[in-house]
Amino acid sequence: MSYSKPPCIIVALDFAETKKALHFVEQLSPTVCKLKVGNELFTRGGPELVRHLVNLKFDVFLDLKFYDIPNTVAQACLAAADLGVWMVNVHALGGIRMMVAAREALQAYGVNSPLLIAVTALTSYHENEWRTLGFKRNINESVLHLAELAQQAELDGVVCSAQEASVLRRCLGPSFCLVTPGIRLAEDARDDQQRVCTPEMALAAGSDYLVMGRSITRARDPMALLRQLNEVIIRV
Ligand code: C5P
């Protein structure tokens, strides 16, 4: 791995109620995982919840996938930085001007700027569905192209499927941050994800950070599972 600052597992707090998310977080520690707040929980808990998690000393990835005109996305990234989050993301499909605007806005934060990454293609897409959107390139080619645009815009990295990570690592170099959702333990259900990998496969392919939602949130003992996974990570 090239870039990552441990812990490398980012737990997706996809809960329907803020209270349930907070209750779950009580079992965790910033030494075993980072946390991801996405659209569902943010729409319920808002900035107050994010600040609370930051105050608990967790590195927080605010996964709101901003996709709008450049000025709006730049201002939204600033609002995220004001919350003290560790990482924020935009859609690469918003284009290079939008990504540059976001990056330039965050320069005001200097060394305290959150990492800025871009979503390439959602890991829930499969090839047929991708093609129905009208793209000429297949998913793999599109992901590489979008990641190259993100790199040209000098973003810190991208969100991609672990199945694409090895190609991106090879083409985009060692210091481009790769964040991979769609992680499943061998015995897990895929749920709505299509392009899935195990944690070991994702790390071997060059992922820096593994986003894990349901595999952790549905576990009988999430803390024990996280400790076990962290040991695997040290060995890969
Ligand atoms: O439960 P599961 O492990 O599938 O959760 C994956 C998380 O990663 C969800 O919060 C989802 O929104 C997020 N995500 C994703 N694919 C992307 C970007 C984010 O699955 N390309």
Question: TL;DR of this structure?
Answer:
The protein has one domain (9-235): TIM Barrel, CATH 3.20.20. It is 44% helix and 16% strand.
How would you characterize this protein structure?
This protein is an alpha/beta fold. It has a single domain, classed as Alpha-Beta Barrel (TIM Barrel), CATH 3.20.20.70. Helices cover 44% and strands 16% of the residues. The chain has helices at residues 18-25, 39-55, 70-82, 96-106, 127-132, 139-152, 162-172, 199-204, 214-217, 222-235, and strands at residues 9-12, 34-38, 60-66, 87-91, 115-119, 157-159, 177-180, 209-212. The protein has an eight-stranded parallel barrel, surrounded by six helices. Helix 1 links the parallel strand 1 (9-12) and strand 2 (34-38). The termini are close together. 43% of the residues are buried. The model has no long low-confidence stretch (mean pLDDT 94). The structure holds cytidine-5'-monophosphate.
Q: Radius of gyration from the CA trace?
A: 17 Å
What fraction of residues sit in β-strands? 15-25%
- How many distinct helices? 10
Global morphology: globular
Low-confidence stretches: none
At CATH level 2, the architecture is Alpha-Beta Barrel
**Portion of residues within helices:** 40-55%
Any descriptors?
236 residues; alpha/beta; 8-stranded parallel barrel; 10 helices; binds cytidine-5'-monophosphate
